[in-house]
Structures are given as C-alpha cells and as structure tokens.
Amino acid sequence: MERHFFFSACALLLLAASTASPARVVEHKFYVQNLTVNKLCNTQIITAVNGRLPGPTIRVQEGDTLLVHVFNKSPYNLSIHWHGVFQRLSGWADGPSMITQCPIRPGCKYIYKFTIIDQEGTLWWHAHVSFLRATVYGALIIRPRGGHSYPFPMPYKEVPILLGEWWNTNVFDVEKLAVATGAAPNLSIAYTINGWPGDLYPCSENQMYKLKLLQGRTYLLRIINAALNHELFFKIANHKLTVVSIDARYTQPYVTNVVVTAPGQTVDVLLTADQPVGSYYMAATAYASADGVLFDNTTTRGVLAYDGAPSSTTPLMPVLPDFNDTLTAHKFYSNLTGLVGGPHWEPVPLKVDHEMLVTIGLGLEPCPANTSCKGPKLSASMNNVSFVRPTSLSMLQAFFFNVNGVYTTDFPAKPTIEFDYTNASINNNIPMLFAPKGTKVTKVKFNSTVEIIFQNTAILGVENHPMHLHGFDFHVLAQGFGNYNPATDRKKHNFINPQMRNTIAVPAGGWAVTRFTANNPGVWVLHCHLDMHLPLGLATAFVVENGPTPETTLPPPPVDLPQC
C-alpha cells in the first residue's frame, strides 16, 4: 500500500530522547596515505583515508563541534573540504587550497575545528586539491540534536550511498597530463557504489555493494554524488523513492522513480521495501548533457536483497534514462521545493543588495612557451574572467591580514560583453573563446543579499554546470533554458517554497536564478564542481566583510594553519 508522508505534528517521531541533550565534541583522526587496491583486473596504489574507500563516515548532531586531525602521509599536497558546512566564523576550516588555507604538505598535519550550526541532513567531505577527490572522500551525516526529530517518519535504518568514479591509473597523473597537454582529462573507466564497481565491469563479479532489506520496512538512503566529472542518474528496479532532503535542506516529499545528482550534490530518499521478496538492482549511469563530448558510458550497480530471497535469484534491473535525457534531468531538478516551516527553513530575502548576471562556460587559452602543449588548451571562465588561484598566500589570509596583491575586488557583476549566450555561432568569433586570467572577487557587506543569475554559454558547446557555493546555501528561485529574459522569466520566480542547496546544476544551454544572504565573514569560493573546471578557471569568490560586533567578525587563524 502506497504511503504518503507530510510534515505535520502528528507525523513527528523522536530520534532518541525526549529531552534536549547538550552539544558534544566529536573527534576523528584522518591518516591520508597510500593504499594498494585490486579493482577492474588491476592492482594499483591510491591515496585514501584510514585505509578505506570511501573514507570514514562522520556522524554528528546539529550543534556539535567537530575536530578532525588530518595527518598527511601521502606524497601529495592536500586539504580537506567539508562540503556544504556553513563554517560560521570558522572559515579557516573550510578547506579549499589557496582560498582559505595553504595545502597540508606531505609529512605535516592540521586540525580542522568547526561547529555544525543550523544544519541537518547529508553532507560530505573530500580532498580539495587536484583529482585526489576521486579517492579521498566520505559522508558527513548530521542528525537533529537530541530531543528533536526528522520532519518525516523515523526510518528503520539509514544507509549512505556514495556514488564515485574510478580510473585504472594514478588520478594525480590524469590531471597533470591534462594540464600539460591542454587536452581534456582521460576518462574514468567505471562508476562505483560505496567503492564497489559492480558486476557489469571486468573482474568485478564479487565487487558489488549489497544491502539487505526487511519487507515492509522503510529505509533512508543518503545519496552522495562523489564523482569528479559526471552527473548521474540513479534508479532502483520496481521501487519508488521519496525525496525528503537535498544538500542537507529538507524538501516537500517528492515521489520519483529516478534521482539525478550532479557532482557535489546530496539527495536523501525514503525507500519502502514494498515489493515481493526478491533481489533488485540499484544502478547509476551518466547524464551527459554536452553534445559530441566523450564521457564514461558505463553503469555501476549494487543489489538490494530482501530477507528470505533465494541466493540464486537473478536481480531485476531498472530501465535507466538515456545518457542525454535532459528532460528527465530537468524535471527532477526543477520539481523539488523547500519544506516551509520545517527545521532550519529560511524565507526568501526579498530585498536584493547586489545583483549579478554571471556567464559560465568553457573556452581556450594559448599554450605556454616551451611546453608539451599543442595548440590552444582548454580553459573556462565566469563573466569572461578565468580564475587563477594564488600561489604564495591564501585569499583568506590576505583578507584577514589586509595583504594587497593577492586578489582584486573587480569581478564584473555582469558580462563585460553581451552576446547571444546560447547561440553556437559565437564559436565563429575566435576572440570570444579566449578569456583573460585573473584572481577577481566580489566584495559584499555583511548580511547583504546577493542575487546570482547563472547563464550558461554555448562557447565550445553547452553543458550542465554544477555550481557550488562555499559557506552558504542559496534559494533556487527559477531555472530554464535559453537566454535569461528578465521581462518574462522573473514571473517564474518562486518566492514561496523554493528549494535551497549549496550546489545548483545549471541547465545545459540555460540559466538558474539564486539568492543568498552573506551573513558569514570571510572568503568563499564559487566554482563549478566538475573537477577539471576549477583548475581551468571556472570559479570566482565572494569576500564578505566583517559585521559590526565580535560575534560577526572572523577570528584569527589557528596557530597550526598550514603555510605556503
């Protein structure tokens, strides 16, 4: 029997205790080092945390303080980003290399310390240096503090589902080769579910994730897209899924038979084991929106096995969408709405202090002299500025110590050149394919409201871009295709119950309207979460000024902050 869940007082179930419990200090140790693994007929050395892939799952409650001691025993510089965590007054712990800190050098360590404030749901952590994110990642699960509850019936069990991407080679070398030659990085050869590729890949019949289900029980699947460069469709044969949260923001329950996630995004779904006793595949495959661009066209799968199902049963396989099914992807992305009145719900700020129209897309740049690069190399830009990370001092240090010359505050609030953004004929205008380099940011006052209209361009082809904002969630007011037209598209803005999230998949050849309140002083990077696009330059940052009180002022850096 189908069950519909709505947010109401009678539907609330206490998590564990009827009285509030005090906030805790939760402590972890991360040892980042080499690990030898056997996958897809190949033995190789990867970089991993605590000898595991994925790395450790961190479980906290809202209000807890988290301390993570990171020991870098790998041969690479690295930092860890706590993806989606607000980092209120703890920007030094955000983690993006050369934005909020210098990387942790091999043989060194750093303690990340921050408090989880006004957030609950599924987030995650990952390396924020080069392609190391392919194997250095894990779940960060935030439950309501004691005495509080989910705005949906208590599930029988909670299960993290981390979707990853796999190369049969050193991922650091994959990026290094791409940067040197100017070409796109070599493609991954597999996707994974909780580190396992599944039986559709060679030598992988026994390397498949399996989950036991009890018939009639409801499970909370915490789905995380930890892939580097691919959006993914996710389905379970013969089962419907009810979306209840995205990016640690509760949603109106949304029933679907397919989930779409962009790299960096999380989706929490309720799965009820309401089918006949048997075995059912869960599967993930690429949503590839760019025409003519090569992608990893493979499928990972795991098994949901009902208790009592014969081991000889052949699991049922879901019918997955076509790789270029933009209509299905857009239907999922655009039909999600926020849970008004739910925990941590925030109304849309109506007064806008800083309006921005930001074009996003690929481009080209000349090859440096005396290199192996052949012909123009790939680049990327926002508003015709290709972002360059500093090399000698992090941007947050420059902000705190008032050091000039690290960045400039002249990022344009609108395109410097207006054109027909989604018309492919722009590629005939060769100078438009080349964007100047710079470390340009937008400086805003504390507590101001920023509206960003993301506009995809057709330069080198249109594609869906997952844009991730550090330090904040934004309301997604509207999204659509073509060029944004304020005269008609403003009428589509949802000011009542828009979804909130930290990573928005801007439609291929389209636009998305977002707003956020800059209530956290520091330097916060905004970048495309397709991993190769950040080093290519598809990024910028916001410098949020300190507020008027000590409680709204960024504190000094920790004494063990890594130095460049």
TrEMBL record:
It holds the Pfam family Cu-oxidase_3. It catalyses: 4 hydroquinone + O2 = 4 benzosemiquinone + 2 H2O. Keywords: Apoplast, Copper, Glycoprotein, Lignin degradation, Metal-binding, Oxidoreductase, Repeat, Secreted, Signal. It is an enzyme of class 1 (oxidoreductase). It comes from the Eukaryota. GO terms for biological process: lignin catabolic process. Belongs to the multicopper oxidase family. Lignin degradation and detoxification of lignin-derived products. This is Laccase. The lineage of its organism: Eukaryota, Viridiplantae, Streptophyta, Embryophyta, Tracheophyta.
